[in-house]
Amino acid sequence: MPKRTALLIIALLLEATAFGQQKDSLYHEQYRPQLHFSPPAHWMNDPNGLVYYKGTYHMFYQYYPNGTIWGPMHWGHATSTDLMHWTNKPIALYPDSLGLIFSGSAVVDYHNTSGFGKNGRPPLVAVFTNHDQAKEKDGKNDTENESLAYSNDEGKTWTKYAHNPVLKNPGISDFRDPKVMWYAPQKKWVMTLATKDRITFYSSKNLKEWRKESEFGEKLGAHGGVWECPDLFPMTAVDGKKMWVLIININPGGPQGGSATQYFTGSFNGKVFKPNNTDTRWVDQGSDEYAGVTWSNTGNRHIFLGWMSNWQYAMSVPTKAWRSAMTIPRELKLLKVGKSYYVASEPVKELHFLEMGTVKILSFKVKGTEDLGRTNTGQYIVNFSPRQLTSFSLTLSNDKNEKLIVGFDKKENSWYIDRRNAGESGFNKDFAKRLNAKRLINSVGADVFILVDATSVELFADHGLTAMTAIFFPEKPLGNLSISSIEGFSPGEISRSSLYRIWP
What we know:
Elements: H1 3-22, E1 42-53, E2 56-64, E3 74-80, E4 87-93, E5 100-108, E6 124-131, H2 133-137, E7 144-151, E8 159-160, E9 175-183, E10 188-195, E11 198-204, E12 211-216, E13 226-236, E14 242-251, E15 260-268, E16 273-275, E17 290-294, E18 303-307, E19 322-323, E20 330-337, E21 340-347, E22 355-361, E23 366-374, E24 380-384, E25 392-397, E26 403-409, E27 414-421, E28 434-438, E29 448-453, E30 456-461, E31 466-471, E32 480-489, E33 494-499
Parallel strand pairs: 1-19
Antiparallel strand pairs: 1-2, 2-3, 3-4, 5-6, 6-7, 7-8, 9-10, 10-11, 11-12, 13-14, 14-15, 15-16, 17-18, 18-20, 20-21, 22-33, 23-32, 24-29, 24-33, 25-26, 25-32, 26-27, 27-28, 29-30, 30-31
């Protein structure tokens, strides 16, 4: 028996055994992600309050507990010790007399500048937007203000500050999504706030009293829609260069239509952000990553998480008990291309904890179509590193004639994801299409990492310089794999790793 065939058979047996052990009701419904966080039920959107403390990653998120479409926003809550397996927690923040609980951030106040700490222990402090629906209905502009809540039990329970809001709206209709960080050189907190078509920076010594520092971006970058969910943090590039990264989410105006996450690199002195680039750059060039921000208190790691959907169709996708999931957590890094620096992203290293077995298909040349076997689980990784990149297509399919294609188009110099035949798409006229992303480097070789879940694919190419996320809704998992090339393509060794599902 050929070695390649034997390895495929062994992998299938391992996957079948694991698959048989994994069946249960909750988190095993049709279309339910098995690698990505989704709430047990009801509506979810933006990740909020991402903070790491005492070995635990906290994920809060926009949540409506009474339906599967957007409604009065709460902060849902889940925790993890490895960024993969999540434990659902009670709702952390409920709407109050000041309004709904919109997006925001959370920090560890190590110096107890807020005075919320007890017994010498630092509090966790959440900074969020209150949205007043009554004012909105009356046509007023000052509907959104920034407020605080704090926790003295490591995030288990939260108390709202008695004197909220701490930053009042000056009369701007979109005044929201505070991302707060400690700026050590000046011993102060810096708030990065989305204010309609620009970013406004504020500073505070105690998280309670804020002063405006500067504005950025009125005519820079993409402006197809409102700016939302910003983030600001320092990074050190792979070559040692230090700079700042400013993330800004926008809706609509993304590269595939609808919502997406753009960014700038530059300098920041505690008051003013000065960009190195004024062109438009995207953290993810697919259709289904939005509101992405990073965890605070993670040291030199910059761990990014986005909402895996798009406002074009988020409320009409065909899930029933719940709606939407988060992307896989990603590690950000700065890479130099020519004279410019770009933000690259790849799945966090913890993803490999989920691997149940790997099949390696030895180097061969593709001329036409080559079968790569099948997997009995709907969640897996495919990766390879061709020494010479040319046009190819990797097809993921099932026996229902549904297929999703990931590939590279040499003529267009573009990576792509084609979901036109990948399952249910009637819920939105623009959903079924091919998504394209121009390649950012011109190296001869490449590396390709593809993460597949029940209803999503995440492509990371060229060390993460290109990231593309797309959701889809097949009747059955797309577990059959093949690779095609008309002109001929040598992918190098192909590895396929099946993954355990994250839910107990």
